[in-house]
Design a protein that fits this description.
2 helices, mainly alpha, rod-shaped
């Protein structure tokens, strides 16, 4: 079999964990960015 498929079979748990961590990091970055933009809009409205 192809060595790449062997690698995927033996390390599938780690690959799934990395993908999940990347998704969580993306969600965190999106909400952090959204919070900054909302804070700027609130400051603009209060002035």
């Amino acid at each position: 079999m192809n060595p790449f498929y062997d690698f995927l079979e033996q390390n599938s748990l780690y690959i799934v964990m990395i993908i999940v961590l990347l998704v969580w990091f993306g969600i965190f970055a999106f909400t952090f960015n959204l919070e900054k933009r909302v804070k700027k809009l609130e400051e603009k409205l209060n002035q």
